[in-house]
Amino acid sequence: MENENRNSLDLGYANLDLDRKRRTGAGEVIFGQSKDSEQIAGILTGFWNSGEKNVLVTRIDEEKAEAVKALLAGHSLADRFQYFPDARIALLGQNAPADGLGPIAVVTGGTSDIPVAEEAARTAEFLGNDVIRVYDVGVAGIHRLFDKLELIRSAKVVIAIAGMEGALASVVGGLVSAPVIAVPTSVGYGASFGGISALLSMLNSCASGVSVVNIDNGFGAGYQASMINHMK
Amino acid sequence: MENENRNSLDLGYANLDLDRKRRTGAGEVIFGQSKDSEQIAGILTGFWNSGEKNVLVTRIDEEKAEAVKALLAGHSLADRFQYFPDARIALLGQNAPADGLGPIAVVTGGTSDIPVAEEAARTAEFLGNDVIRVYDVGVAGIHRLFDKLELIRSAKVVIAIAGMEGALASVVGGLVSAPVIAVPTSVGYGASFGGISALLSMLNSCASGVSVVNIDNGFGAGYQASMINHMK
Amino acid sequence: MENENRNSLDLGYANLDLDRKRRTGAGEVIFGQSKDSEQIAGILTGFWNSGEKNVLVTRIDEEKAEAVKALLAGHSLADRFQYFPDARIALLGQNAPADGLGPIAVVTGGTSDIPVAEEAARTAEFLGNDVIRVYDVGVAGIHRLFDKLELIRSAKVVIAIAGMEGALASVVGGLVSAPVIAVPTSVGYGASFGGISALLSMLNSCASGVSVVNIDNGFGAGYQASMINHMK
Amino acid sequence: MENENRNSLDLGYANLDLDRKRRTGAGEVIFGQSKDSEQIAGILTGFWNSGEKNVLVTRIDEEKAEAVKALLAGHSLADRFQYFPDARIALLGQNAPADGLGPIAVVTGGTSDIPVAEEAARTAEFLGNDVIRVYDVGVAGIHRLFDKLELIRSAKVVIAIAGMEGALASVVGGLVSAPVIAVPTSVGYGASFGGISALLSMLNSCASGVSVVNIDNGFGAGYQASMINHMK
Amino acid sequence: MENENRNSLDLGYANLDLDRKRRTGAGEVIFGQSKDSEQIAGILTGFWNSGEKNVLVTRIDEEKAEAVKALLAGHSLADRFQYFPDARIALLGQNAPADGLGPIAVVTGGTSDIPVAEEAARTAEFLGNDVIRVYDVGVAGIHRLFDKLELIRSAKVVIAIAGMEGALASVVGGLVSAPVIAVPTSVGYGASFGGISALLSMLNSCASGVSVVNIDNGFGAGYQASMINHMK
Amino acid sequence: MENENRNSLDLGYANLDLDRKRRTGAGEVIFGQSKDSEQIAGILTGFWNSGEKNVLVTRIDEEKAEAVKALLAGHSLADRFQYFPDARIALLGQNAPADGLGPIAVVTGGTSDIPVAEEAARTAEFLGNDVIRVYDVGVAGIHRLFDKLELIRSAKVVIAIAGMEGALASVVGGLVSAPVIAVPTSVGYGASFGGISALLSMLNSCASGVSVVNIDNGFGAGYQASMINHMK
Amino acid sequence: MENENRNSLDLGYANLDLDRKRRTGAGEVIFGQSKDSEQIAGILTGFWNSGEKNVLVTRIDEEKAEAVKALLAGHSLADRFQYFPDARIALLGQNAPADGLGPIAVVTGGTSDIPVAEEAARTAEFLGNDVIRVYDVGVAGIHRLFDKLELIRSAKVVIAIAGMEGALASVVGGLVSAPVIAVPTSVGYGASFGGISALLSMLNSCASGVSVVNIDNGFGAGYQASMINHMK
Amino acid sequence: MENENRNSLDLGYANLDLDRKRRTGAGEVIFGQSKDSEQIAGILTGFWNSGEKNVLVTRIDEEKAEAVKALLAGHSLADRFQYFPDARIALLGQNAPADGLGPIAVVTGGTSDIPVAEEAARTAEFLGNDVIRVYDVGVAGIHRLFDKLELIRSAKVVIAIAGMEGALASVVGGLVSAPVIAVPTSVGYGASFGGISALLSMLNSCASGVSVVNIDNGFGAGYQASMINHMK
After folding, report:
1. Which of B219, D95, E186, F70 is 20 to 30 A from G67 via CA?
2. Is G97 domain-assigned?
3. Which residues fall within 8 angstroms of residue B9, CB to CB, at 6 or more apart?
4. Residues E133, E223: one domain?
């Protein structure tokens, strides 16, 4: 059901697993949400012992990260473990070297979308991409977006993240020639219905070249953006 | 249940009816959708006989308008009856003289929104307003909107009409200093759900100064815009 | 994504920013919900230092307001900061002088709607409007509404606020000649679905001249009402 | 699944069937919607032959009624069969004598609600009740409702029927001391969602003494109103 | 918005208020949910001082009731105040004498529905009705319902309360000749969606003579049942 | 996407295909809905030529069946093709011999559910089962169900089919000791929402031993019932 | 409303109760969710005293189970009471001997589905079935499923449990010849809407032989699977 | 609102328009759905006269295409106009030469999804891509998918198209290392709700590297796939 160990699957069919590895040039990713600190510490230690030194843990809150850190204390990997509270992400080891076609832009409507944006950005960095962060450029003050337009256009893939009415994806989609991955967020209140309003907006985008991932799914956007950025 | 005869109500409380008349300086409005041609011809004749020479009929399709015209043939009001197919509106008599604070802008995302836009525009004109029509300036090609921005800004009230993702309302709302009345339309397919996507977008607009009316309710937007444009 | 700093945007297009300022004659507004006390105190201090002495903070609960107050202690702006718990609003400095076309009426169905109503009322006052508060006049006891009808009719704009079945907007819309901005609230239980029932009622209002904002969006209603009340 | 033959069930438990008959003092009711003209003609003939001379057929359109009439031609019951197009109801025989506690008022918001209202009214008349029809008194022009208030108050049970925002039920519920049965109708467009908006409004009514039946279910309201009007 | 003081409204139109009083022969009812203990204690004292000695408070949890009791300590009404935790109801004074046409049956599908059932039952008793309680007779073990059928049939009005699939209302509606008021409850999990499943079932009941109130609205059912039980 | 050829899959993994064949002892099934008459005639001929003489075609209306028949004219299989309009099913060849553990009961709430019921029944018969049809025993007249209870109890599997409120599944589920497969139908109007109300009821059934298939999915119910009836 | 005592009902019709007992050869089941520890301890003691030594309690959390254990201390049944935290189930006494047609496979998409899976598995074991647990074989890494395919195929009934997109049911349904009972879980976030996404997927499964129970209803799946596994 | 002329926008900002042209190396695209034959013929002629010889028209049914053809008769472009009924697409001129990184695979669950698939495939071909069509490989018969797996894996981008439960996207997403664009279709009945079930499944896909476009939006998927396939 979960996303964990997505890169390390021994699929047993052809050598898909190898393909994926080769393409991303990256380590492992664990979906931390439904795992407790003991489980996470155990998985990290297991990877380390098997030679996999670089692991990303998503959806892990600060308290749980602290608990993992405590459990790793004394182990040789302990000082290679760090936590990024904005992204709710922990990193063991280091990011893959940035070897994509170009930078990926992560653009948000507001500051409240930053946790999702950072999840996307850190994921992309881990998988070997440079990331341009352009936050708080929602369409209600569209000049802020235009101020950053050349920067956004320098990216090979754009991740557009917004809650409430989610209009950012359409506007950005009309302004750039790169593929846009839209991420609706649960930011809002009342008729935003936990992200449904933004989700529907993005699915109905009248701009071409926009596709959508699940509400708040920063990881998914960062992962697919990296895939696209490593096309060859 | 219906909106018909909205201006002619003898409310019996204070002299509200008089107030409404005085404010709009306009004739009567009939909601034509659930009335057949005989009923509409009868109401028009009745108004005419009672001295009300100017009447707007909304939500009347071409076939029904032809039938009304045939029924009125020979009557003295017959050559004062005209039909506007784009707006699905028939007009007996003439519009009130434009005496508002300034023009009202009617802005649409696409050409498919024009029927709703024309309903709003014709309603506003009937009630005594100049109307600026700015159609097909959806946010996926935002330069088209910017090309018309000074024109839109010259209006005292803006009606923003869009289907699909409805992002137009937020973008316009952030660019003008006038009140914006947003009208979601049922234009779209799939996850537009008959206008729900656009409706939710507009209700969640992150721009200030935006309020919303029912899906496809061009009349309601034109009516309230006229109210605001006649503030004194 | 958020509404903060809505009045101070340097839009870089024409001089929209100036227009907005000139029109409202008011200070700045901050959307406090997703900001912590340090952020809010910092923004307030920043505005103060840059010469903006009047700032409204919406969606700030009592505990956070206390924390902001503590952080501001000793600063010259400290004794110009006050909190209104009913409105969940904090005010630095003072309201703009009331210079609208007339008063704005804020009308509620019940006492549970008062937090939303006070958000609307305080916003309107901050932006330079007199406000008439008419609370707890829901349609189930319609005589209470009629008792206050002349008072409501003296307003230039009416904000109608109700939860549950939201019928207030339609009834008030039929009784006044001023524009009505309807605010559905999340008050209710069971099939009120957090305000959806009231929202749908208001969107389907059979009265003309009614438009709608998001569930519980007192700020949005107060802001647009002020816009309309400053038409010229 | 259907409502047909509701009064003639031989329930086999105690003598419920007898009770129901005795209470309503009325004939049989057939739900005509999913039956073709042959089936309906057959059921009518069967009832007639078994001695039941009075039968109501609901949800039968004009074309099907004509077909039934043609099938009955020559039979002794043929000239006792009549059709009421407004109510989409056919009647064989006659109504039960009106022997309730008093009249039942059937009140609608608009003229488009009349088909549902007539279904309720004809059902109540068939089951032995006098009916007061008060149509087109929607809350947007509340003076029309007040003009008829004493008439409505003279009823022992009130059926309140409305589409769009369905506010009529709450307003009427607050003005009368009789039980109110509310019927949402599918009248409306856009966010009325085929009657959902009116349904939710009525379920959330802030007036006491209001209960609700299914969308467009005029029969159900007339049936229960008759039950209440025959309490003893 | 709220239901409070529903019986004491001075409606100012004819003498509706008097009518309601005369009919119910009962005291006042307060909707306690959104009021704090100070407000409730104040309203109770106010009623008492104005001569109204009998007051029902609905939707009041045990903690709040204790707080009200503490506030009333020393006042002459203190020992006339009692709390019924099962019903989440507090009573000042006493019920009206039972003078209805007969008993009201309150029937539930399960034991989890009892809080809603007790709200209905206590409300009906307060308004002058005898109540027959038949709990936990859900249709999955239909023999339990049949065991109590004669008892249920002895009632003049039946309140059918169920969560989950809400089938009880249809089954009971087919077995009794009295009007049935159905109350969906939020009991259930998963696809019960907080009572929506039961609500839809009850609205679609294929039994005649069933109407529905809001989810968990025991008060509303008890109130209307009392109205019907006092028909004359 | 479709169900066609479900039994003839050469899965290539182990010998699943063989297993399925052996278990059902039956011919092929084609989902006719999205196929035109030419396609269906072609598939039938193909099966025939390859030795498969028994084929069931579901979701085929009368007109399309006639067209298929015309296309097959002259072919040796032509007189082995028959159509069952009630079930919207065509059969080439014959049913498998009934070799299940016992009969399968197909029970419906009303007569409008019969098309779905016949689809289930004909499917089960084709797959080698005896079927007991018990139609029009909805819970509003529960004595009709009890009259047939022993008959229903004689079945090894029960398929309970109902629209509107779908209560039949719960009641039947509580009365039999066999597994119950519930089929919601789209029969109803208003708040039945095309079968959603019945679907939710059945999913929330408080009876044990009930599972549910898609709205109107008579085939699916018949297929799984046959699977269960051939357990060994 | 609740499922408790499902096996012990004295239905009074024929000897259904006996049938059920005989079929399952198992003890009693209590739905613990809405019962407190005193109630549960009381029911357990009551069963014990009446001779029923084997009872399963579902939906009971660890804290409540501890409280029950404390209440039973000193009683002769105390050391026959055990708790399974993974399944949120308590067991008094022991499982029925496994006498089904073969094993039941319980298959999950992820590790987060395990609580629901264990509820299903423990229920099936209590009712006299061997259970094969195959967890964390979601379709995104389909090789894990294929690795266990022979094991799954050895089962007579398969319970497929998944959240998020719920695709497991369709894939498994296409690969096995046994009946599949699908259980959607509330595992997921964003557009999984608490299990709705998985529920809809499973209802729309394009594989034959799949039926569905309520979201998170492990008990219901285990119960029906046992029924099917005891067919004879 | 519409997608027409998406490639030819003179955005006036930097030289975005040029960029898009250069990237796609393709002609113009017109969204034909809301345009009549005269409008389409006019736009085609206009493009032709201005030098643009290659134009794709999407969402155009056969009848409308015939009408366009008739209108173009005699014009020099007439014999360069062809219609593809499976795709509901008309083509003026020719596709751009295939110059992408590799082929794009278009995969469907069933044959009913082919119209959407062909819209995607023809769009991609027009924009300069080779397309591999793999139709009718739904997950209920997963061996059909595996039979084509190497073929699918040879693609640089995969478009996965399915209705009903939409599981195809997750399964394919887990088996390939290319980015997957998922297209839900409105194929299905009952609880498929016009594509909502498939849409939710795809948004909740537990496979990484999957993003989603609107229901039935074959064009959008083909367009973005082409973008990705031309990354450099």
Report:
1. E186
2. no
3. B16, B17, B20, C174, D141, D143, D144
4. yes
- Asked whether at least 3 C-beta pairs link F and A within 8 Å, the reply is no
Indicate the SS3 state at residue A140: helix
Domain hosting residue A71, numbered range: 3-92
Are residues D140 and D161 located together in one domain of the fold?
A: yes
Look-up of token digits 């499944």: H201
Closest in A110, A173, A191 to B200, CB measured:
A191
Q: Is G167 found in the same domain as G86?
A: no
Domain co-membership, B72 together with B117? no
Total domains, chain E: 2
Where among C60, C92, C124 does a domain terminate?
C92
Section F1-15 average pLDDT: 32
Q: Using CB atoms and an 8 Å cut-off, which of residues 178-197 of chain B contact chain C?
A: 178-179, 181
Q: Concatenated DSSP letters for C140-175?
A: GGHHHHHHTHHHHHT-SEEEEEE-TT-THHHHHHHH
Do C191 and C83 lie in one domain? The reply is no
Tens digits of per-residue pLDDT, A101-134? Answer: 999 999 999 999 999 999 999 999 999 999 999 9
E168: closest CA of chain F, how far (Å): 8
Terminal-to-terminal C-alpha distance of chain H:
30
Mean pLDDT estimate for chain C: 88
Nearest neighbour of G34 by CB, restricted to E109, E112, E141: E112
Does residue G22 register a pLDDT over 60? Answer: no
- Edge-to-edge strand order for the sheet containing B131-134? B131-134, B104-108, B157-162, B180-184, B210-212, C210-212, C180-184, C157-162, C104-108, C131-134
Answer yes or no: is C161 within a domain.
yes
| Amino acid at residue number B130 | D
Residue D10 forms contact with E (CB below 8 Å): no
Q: Do D178 and E224 touch (CB under 8 A)?
A: no
Q: Kindly provide the residue ranges of all beta strands, DSSP E only, lying in chain H, ordered along the sequence.
A: 28-31, 55-58, 81-84, 89-92, 104-108, 131-134, 157-162, 180-184, 210-212
Same domain flag for F28 and F138: no
- Domain assignment present for residue H166? The answer is yes
Length of chain A: 232
d(CA D170, CA D147): 17
Q: How far from the centroid of its chain's Cα atoms is residue F98's Cα?
A: 15
Helices (H), G60-194: 62-72, 114-126, 142-147, 149-153, 168-175
Describe the strand order of the beta sheet including F28-31 as a list of residue ranges. F28-31, F55-58, F89-92, F81-84
Per-residue pLDDT of chain H (232 residues; tens, 9 = 90+): 333 333 332 323 333 333 344 344 568 999 998 899 999 999 999 999 999 999 999 999 999 999 999 999 999 899 999 999 999 999 999 999 999 999 999 999 999 999 999 999 999 999 999 999 999 999 988 999 999 999 999 999 999 999 998 999 999 999 999 999 999 999 999 999 999 999 999 999 988 899 999 999 999 999 999 999 999 8
Average pLDDT for A142-154: 95
Q: Does the ipTM surpass 0.95?
A: no
Of the candidates B79, B68, B61, the one whose C-alpha atom is nearest the C-alpha of residue B41 is B68
Question: What is the identity of the amino acid at G32?
Answer: G
Q: Are residues F222 and F112 in the same domain?
A: yes
Domain-embedded: residue F98:
no
- CA distance, residue H59 to nearest chain G CA (Å): 27
Nearest to B163 by CA among B143, B194, B185, B138: B185
> Any residues with CB less than 8 A from the CB of F87 and at least 6 apart, and which?
F115, F118, F119, F121, F122, F218
Which residues from chain D sit within 8 angstroms of residue C197, using beta carbons? 197, 200-201, 203-204
Chain E contact for C85 (CB, 8 A cutoff): no
**What residue in D sits closest to B197 (Cα-Cα)?**
D191
Question: Which residues does chain F have within 8 Å of residue E170's beta carbon, measured at their own beta carbons?
Answer: 139-140, 165, 167
Do G13 and G45 lie in a common domain?
yes
Task: Note the pTM of the prediction, 2 decimals.
Answer: 0.91
Asked if residue F72 lies in contact with residue F44, where contact means CB atoms within 8 angstroms, the answer is: yes
